[in-house]
Amino acid sequence: NRDAIIPNAKPFPFTIRAKKTAIVMVDWQLDFTSPKGFGAALGNDCEVLREEALPNAVKILEAGREAKCAIVHTLEAHKADLSDCPPSKIRRCDKIGQTVDAKMGRILVRNEPGNSIEPLVAPIEGELIVHKPGKGAFYNTNLEFQLKRRGIETLIFTGVTTEVCVQTSMREANDRGFECIVADDATESYFPEFKKACLEMISSQNGIVGWRCLTEDVVNALK
Ligand code: TIU
């Protein structure tokens, strides 16, 4: 309940009050992390997401649960009839809604096997699950309402991929008045140069989008 400070956050110290804080776990779904999923179908190497960032996301999730923060899990997920998927999105990826690998089911479709969350960070009872049709977690979802009704003011982000769904969600949250921080080592991209540039632009210009820190900083602050 007391204020905790992350003194070495960039661009300057960040204050957390656990009761008003949500951990936002962005799109830790097999579609992006599995070598048989959507990310891989786009031609990307997915191993790095699991190997580098996932163990740190686990640490932040566990620290958040321990500190009684609200926990949010997002999924990039369309309805089975794709009625919430703009044709423009399908035009640039005709694999959406298709089955590329039988074990993963239809790509980016709700409740298909590929749309399940990595077991290490799977939701438990009482945690919020947000199916989002876009890259940002606030577009066409009730996330803003859910956070505000819980009195949440601060968001701690982990997830994939850094410059796509994490960045978009963080920008949307920032515009809605939430104080946002991302742990550099609990997010990952298929493109190391995009990750680096994205994290730099988030905290540049006096934290134009928000703050950054490392997993151990979040864990220490929530103790
Ligand atoms: N979750 C998310 O980032 N969706 C993407 O499509 N990411 C890519 O990097 N393609």
Automatic annotation (TrEMBL):
This is Isochorismatase family protein. The chain holds residues 240 to 462 of 463 of the full protein. Coiled coil: none annotated. Belongs to the isochorismatase family. Residues 21-208 form the Isochorismatase-like domain. The lineage of its organism: Eukaryota, Viridiplantae, Chlorophyta, Mamiellophyceae, Mamiellales.
